[in-house]
Model the fold of this input.
Amino acid sequence: MFCDDLAIEVEQLSKCFHIYENPRARLKQFILPTLKKVLHVGTAGSYYREFWPVRDLSFQIRKGETVGIIGNNGAGKSTLLQMICGTLNPTEGRVVVNGRIAALLELGSGFNPEFTGRENVYLNAAVLGLSKKEINEKYDEIVAFSEIEEFLDQPVKTYSSGMIARLAFSVAVQVNPDILIVDEALSVGDMAFQQKSFTKMKEIRDAGTSILFVSHSLSAVRNFCDTAIWMEKGKMRMIGERLEVCEAYQQETEAKNKLISVQKAKTDQLEDPDKQIAILSIECDQHIYEMGDDIIISMGLGFKGENIQYGIGIVIYDNKGHIVSILNTLRDDITFSSVKNNITLTILNNYFAPGEYYLTVVVSDELGMFPYDRLEYAASFNIKMERNAAGLARVEGVVRCDHLWGGK
Done:
């Protein structure tokens, strides 16, 4: 029985698609099974293979709960959201929803590209259940939040992806939904609008709206959600408290990346007999750090010769792909001239702001002119968010600064 305090209940949910090798197989499936049944000839075979992007999922989301869904591409996250929204019918199982859903799924879904932005606002809000009077009352707020008023009388097909995301999100959050579902649609917007959108989602979350969203940013899930769901190959790998789930997912992802890096380096050595140095591994001494902790990064190298001069560099990126820092032995006037199978870098009293960071490692010649080897995004670490007694983040932005306040 569905409880009143639940927003969404998913029970043994599965979705199957039929995959045809070619149009001829699709035509055979359409005609032959029915024909054989009518003529009582043979058995009705199938001319397709089954693909199950979601298989046997069960979970509940309470009213006012914020849930993040994580997992690799192809894990079934988007298919799950579409079934919850009702745009896809499940093959097995059921979904029960309690309240009005506003959803941002595929970019521009629900918009008519030939209609103007203004017409799409009314169309989209009407689909979400608002009367024309209610839309008129909300229209100015929708336009103000989207910040694209000067383009509202232009066809949506002339909009950029960021403008479409702005308008779609503005409609979704201004109709006072009971449940908001977001499928990575905000990732196409600029950083200022993403921050504005998350602030708005916090407001409607605090007002009691249940939020379910897919994100590849573990930082967003850690800082914004109550619960996390880790999906893998259509099944639920883990569900629970968001820090535990994100940590488990990150550890496994890094372990896989490390294995891929080692395999790649060994393969490169086999394929390129003239390669003199290869990066075999890179790892941090832990996955989550407090602000101000030392961060120790270890790298394993393989050599084809002994009298080689070289330098090591590490590029640190944030979760948006922006370079945060570049650390390089050559920049520090350090050149290695002997075989060193293990190199360590210690970042003292780290000044990183809370968030997720990724490492690319490069080994180059002594002048930094050409690389012997390079591994992109081979490891990552997370700086833990710290909050004061009032719940305010102690650090926001790009960097943590030692500071003192004074006054007279």
Helices lie at 23-39, 77-85, 117-127, 132-146, 161-174, 191-206, 218-224, 242-271. The CA atoms of residues 297 and 345 lie 5 Å apart. The longest helix spans residues 242-271. The chain has eight helices and 17 strands.
